[in-house]
Amino acid sequence: MTARPATGSALGSPEPFDYAPAHRRLRSWLVAALAAARSEAQVGVQYRANLLLWGAVRLLQAVISIAVWRSVASANGGAAGGFTANEFAGYFLTVLLVLELTHTWVRGRLPTQIRTGELSPLLLRPMHPLLESFGRMGAFNVLLTIGLLPSIVILWFVFDAEVDVSAVSIIAGIVVLPLAAVGRFLVDALVGVTAFWLTRIDALQSLYTYASLVFAGQFAPLVLLPGPLQTAAKVLPFYWTLGFPVELLTGRCDLREAVIGVAMLTGWSAVLFVALALAWRRGVRAYGAVGA
Amino acid sequence: MADDTIIRTRGLAKHYEVPIREAGLLASVRSITKRQHRTVRAVDGVDLDVARGEVVGFLGPNGAGKTTTLKMLSGLLHPSAGEISVLGHEPRRRDRAFLRRISLVMGQRQQLVWDLPAADSFLMIRSFYGLRHADWRAQLDELHDLLDLEGLTDKPVRQLSLGERMRCELAAGLLHRPELLFLDEPTLGLDVQSQRRVREFIRRYADRTGATALLTSHYMADIEALCERVVVIHHGTLHFDGSLRDLAARVSDRKLLAIRFAADAPILADRARLDRELAAIGEVRESDGAEYVIEVARAEIHDRVTQLMALGDVVDFTVEDEPLERVLERAFDTPAAELS
Amino acid sequence: MRSALLEDLQYRANFWLYLVNALVELALSVATLGIVYGHVDAINGWTRDDLFVVLGTFFLLQTVVQGVVHPSVAQLVQDIRTGNFDHRLLKPVDAQLVSLVQRVDVWRLVGTLLGIGLTLYGLGHAGEWPSLAQVAVWALMIVAGTTIAAAFWSLVSSITFWTVQGEGILWTLDDMYEHVRWPLGIFPGALKVVLSTVFPLGLAVTVPAEALIGRLEWPFALAAVGLAVVLAAAARGAWLLAVRRYEGASA
User: Is this complex scored with an ipTM above 0.85?
Assistant: First the structure.
């Protein structure tokens, strides 16, 4: 029962290392998120076949949307809801771009980590698992967008895409995109944390997928939806994280709409952040109660 | 030395509610709407004090509550009842300051990114823990040396053998130089050589750094080599807490007599008589040609040895303790009151 | 099969969730068609009712793909990783077949009802019931479509033997399947040909529906049957190669 005296050695004393003081925590978090991003980029390069197929599916999705709505536009005498055939192409290719840049998988990965117990070691690191996911996601998105860019450019010319773009809309888009990425991640993570209480959440996940398909402006520009659906979309968070940035980038927002959009996006992000923080805390407690 | 106590639990308990359901299709369908539960007491009132620098082995059959206890001590599981203090922290809060001082190593696929070389994971962990480059480098070099990681850290983890992966996993878990280690079955599934390597590493690491370690293992060799102190947990309660030798003395009143007769001993020619004579001495545990192992009560050992020698033509003879596995089986069967 | 069934029944919440899911999916389909056909009456001659029939086929095949093939192949990928696949190879049944039907996600079979319902609704609303011969061709095309889908999944799972792409690719495939709600027929000529070659699942869903509503073009029907045969053969070949490689690697 006697404590073994610590013998001096190359490994040094048993005292822990010095750590960054609290005021430097944000910086160390950023460093950690970047480390996660770097790691994910390395993994992504290894799984390039999957990335390739993934990219192909994304392109396919855009092509189908463009084809459907071009057909609608031509059957309708050249335009529908203020979109010409070529403007539809511009819209959906921009949707593709924004979707890729703000893509998240946390709603799929978190439930797996919870079910298999892979979350346990992550909880014992002084790094929030969600922050790690966010970092990883960023790297993945940048990688994928770079990979997709040539195809997007080609499709742009094939479909003769048109957007009403200005320097202001591009700058606004660049400012709004990171916000949109955060917002989308928060919604996604909120779906994922339900796995703390539910055994399998596939059904909830597809519910979310379909809801965002319609309400985010992914399936069709918002103006083409029937009135009540449009109203619902403006209340729900999905549109602000996808449709709004796309409309901003394609020059379809005036100043007032842009200001409202940024306010909605920021407001929703704040609400979602608080909700996620609460849900996470309770969820981890539930996880710790049933056997991590 | 109260100030040196870094782990202290009182009445630590963990109860689970598990659904019960009858077998069969009909019952499955019925459970769609209705479900019943019962309570499982995985850990049920454990008092434990561990001082700085101790290496403590947790023993117990599967499902005894060892891993549950380790997880509560590291902060992964929330206790259902009882007090718990580790390094002055309440583990379940998982304060950053706490997490930086401990490490939990639980088998495979924990810290390391499966598809990347371990070296990349080491870098990532450095950022996660906010380690200074020089500290990290020094610790990594040292671990490289102790664990013999040469050539292992630059290929994807998934390509490593189980033993190699475990060594890298240990390195990843110790990069931040934790002062308190929780090791859950660190040698499980490894071949004998890898087991020995991991064992030696833990021994040397604890010796050099004075780190405190709690480990569970199925392999007695691990416990024998590493732990001055063992804690026997069974059915969620503490059965024994003390040295391994004490444990053996307390539960085992048996000795093993191993004997070899000369190949031409007359007694070997008359099997029936030999069997009868040996049975009268004690319980025959093993028999192989001219060699026998007989289990006898420790108190009677003098008489039994005399009897055995009387059979004549003995060429080899030893008295051994029961193997540790047997000792443990007894310990699990013995009520806690008789052990302490 | 029975044990897989029992296992799934344990996830009682899934029953309710899948029911909700099926209804949501139905709502989404009706909504998307409503949005599009709020602006036009027909696209390249395809009416809203025609598209309901296509959706019917989509759900029928989806049931097979997501209820049986995907869970089974996911199990396979996991078995390969954990080494349990060795046991599969030692069983006296065809390992490839088992790998495609070893797990059933029972609650997803609810989708069959949805598929039949949508098909009947589309046909009934248009008021044009198919002849017996059309139904027979439809059945044949369903078989071809199922074969295309299963063979495609199997082919991809064999590729996961070679590369270490893991389960991620299965999700990507699911995602891909989500986009075959539209019949290839609504796309203008060149695009239709391109899509049906690079995207076999589109063909698998389109042809059975075309048979029912009487707009089946024989080149495409033949292409579907041919594709089913070719893909099945390719899947078989890839499987045998993958297994040989697996045996070589683990020996």
Answer: no
